[in-house]
Amino acid sequence: MMEAVEPENRPETEHVGAGMEENRVTSDSSSSDEVISDSSSSNEDHTAIMDTLYWAAVEGNFDAFKDYVHCLDRLVTPTKNTILHVYITTRDLRRRKKKTDRWRLLRKIILSRLINRLLELTIGFCAMAIILPMTCIGVCIMLCFGKRDGRNRATVSRQSTDFLESVLENCPDLIWKTNIKGETPLHIAARHGHNVIILAMIDRCMKAHGDDLEKGVGAARELLAVANVNKDTALHEAVKYNQLNVVLTFTMKIFNLPYSANKAGETPLYLAAERGFDGVVKAILGSCPSPASSGPNGRTALHAAVLRNDRVITSLLLEHEEQKRALTKADDQGWIPLHYAAYYGYLPIVKQLLEANDYLAYIPTTTGQKIALHLAAVNRKIEVMKELLGQCPGCCEMVDERGWNVVHFAAASKKKKTVEFVLHNPLFRNLVNEKNNEGNPPLHQLVASGSYLKLAIDDPQVDLQAFNKSNLSFLDIIFDREGVKLDERKFARQLKYYGVSPGQRMRTDGPQRRSDSFEKVTGNRSNRVTDSDARTPNVDKTEQEHIKEARQAYMVVATLIAAVAFAAGFTMPGGYRQDGTYAVLVQFSSLAIAVSVLGCYCFYCFGIQQVTKLMEKKADFVEYETSASLPFSI
Asked: Residue 294: beta bridge partners?
């Protein structure tokens, strides 16, 4: 390879031929440098040129670019937008501006003609009855034709693709050029709904291959498959912004559209269903026999439609055989669409899904094995429960992985109407006393939640003396709970009238520990119940401290009251002064005694109330101590 040597470093004794060769090489090198410098101009120069031509691209003036047709692909903005990106992005603004200018001109014309008509009315009062109606009719005609003419002109302007055709004629590769976000001009046109521009781009791709229609459609499909940095195609953009005409163009012009998911896992059909665009959903389903419908979190378009409570889109998806398979498809949470509809109480959606496949009521979640009836019960959706039981009554017998039936879930809902519904429904009669895996019937679940115990107590079908695997009955759980409520103690006393007594299965050979299953029901920490513990009332420490503090306060107040009362009693009536004719101190002493008596009475009533509460709790636990310690005395 011949190397270029700088002239100043060349030896003077060098052969003349070598000098001539050097001059030739140097000239060739300098000429190539000029070509390279001319062909690879800096981005700053192209950005500067683009700034001068930016408004020409906005207005669609191709004459300003005739001197730059050889470098149209290098005229970009700082974000790599080409002149096509700029032209398509600003098309809406340009269209609105032209339309506004036309309406201003049209209003001026109408106003001038209206004034001329009104002036003609001054010709004579006799012709007024004829001219006035004609004037009104003329104004209406002008308004209608003027508006239609404005629309036609706007349509002609909108359909004008001269700038696009001129640009692509001189630089066909510009249609594939992407900006810094990876968006082609087709992405921009699809986002803004420029259907005419999209048609021109598709026709350009097809015409590039001449009469070979298959290659032309393949090129158009390849252009549509170009994804940006978020993996969104032009179809994604059209669906996101509900551009129905663009979606119809894509589906009719291009067969086997790419329905791939973007970076977020969203397919075009899923986006349309999630956003409630029923027209777009119908267009996609009508053009493709099996479009992809997956979405984030393993969900499908049917999941999205159900979560939106959209009956129209749900019906469209259920009419499509391929999408109907999603009825039994569970997401990452393990829920099928019916589970969401039942949990949120979407009754019309539940009816639609069950009409499509009534077996869905028996399909459990993959995590927890809960069916739709369980989810409706725990979230207090009684109407949904009625619908599920009406179409699939056998599902009431199913249990989850913990052995919970629908009555357990109703008890856990802490809703009075839900508990009443399951207790008064004949379908659940056999389930009221059914135990879960820990041996706890639904009655124990009511104790754990601490709500609506009276509903269960008044029901004759409830087994009030049922025991769990820890040999704890209903009363045992009530008395062993920390912080027993007053209502629960009242219910406990009521249970005694039904012959229920606590501690019937306590062991006589030593201490007994509550099992883990009991801890799950009551939520208390595990501890031991011994003979000594049974003889000690389980009174809250906070209540004991409160009583001690109240006792000290009572003593102080009683001392003050006694001091005032004795002082008033030993004071001489009339005071120590002889002046005046009225013994004022007599009134003061009487008032002091009255206030003292009233204060004593108030504190006495308050103390009686506190003592009564304490004695009630002690009495309850004394009875529990007696019945629980009876086996130890045998």
From this structure: 300
Residues whose CB falls within 8 Å of the CB of residue 418, separated by 6 or more in sequence, listed in order: 377, 380, 382, 410
Give kind and range of the element (H or E) at residue 586.
helix 584-633
**Do the domain assignments include residue 148?**
no
Q: How far apart are CA 502 and CA 376, in angstroms?
A: 35
How far is 576 from 260, CA to CA, in rounded Å? Answer: 106
Binned at pLDDT 50, 70 and 90, residue 530 comes out as very low
- In angstroms, rounded to a whole number, what is the distance separating the alpha carbons of residues 521 and 446? 9
The conformational region for residue 455 under phi > 0 = left, psi -120 to 50 = alpha, else beta, is alpha
d(CA 357, CA 302): 14
Quick one: what percent of the chain has pLDDT higher than 90?
33
CB atoms within 10 A of CB 517: 18
Q: What is the model's pLDDT at position 216? A: 82
Neighbours of 289 (CB within 10 A): 9
Find out whether 522 and 447 touch, Cβ atoms under 8 Å. Answer: yes
Residues 6+ apart with CB under 8 A from 306: 314, 337, 338, 340, 341, 346, 349, 353
Please list the alpha-helical segments (H only) found in 425-461. Answer: 442-449, 453-457
Q: Give the single-character DSSP code of 507.
A: -
Return the pLDDT at 99: 46
How open is the CA angle 497-498-503, to the nearest 5 degrees? 90
Which residue's entry shows tokens 């369980």? 374
Of the ranges 51-55, 174-178, 574-578, 617-621, which is most confident?
174-178
pLDDT, tens digit, 9 for 90 and up, residues 45-62: 666 777 788 888 888 888
Same domain, 409 and 513: yes
10 Å CB burial of residue 46 (0-12, 13-18, 19+) is: middle
Q: Into how many domains does the chain fold?
A: 2
pLDDT of residue 439: 87
Residues 549 and 476 reside in one and the same domain: no
Question: Where do the DSSP E strands lie in 354-482?
Answer: none
Among 492, 507, 529, the domain boundary falls at: 529
Q: Are 382 and 352 in contact (CB under 8 A)?
A: no
Range of the domain at 407: 403-529
Identify which has the larger pLDDT, 417 or 387: 387
**pLDDT of amino acid 529:** 36
Contact of 291 with 269, CB cutoff 8 Å = yes
pTM value is 0.67
- Give yes or no: residues 560 and 477 share one domain: no
Between residues 44 and 87, which one has the greater pLDDT?
87
What's the rounded Cα separation, in Å, for the pair 406 and 166? Answer: 71
626 occurs within a structural domain = yes
Q: Is 485 among the domain residues?
A: yes
SS3 of residue 77 by DSSP: coil
Q: Is the pLDDT of residue 211 over 70?
A: yes
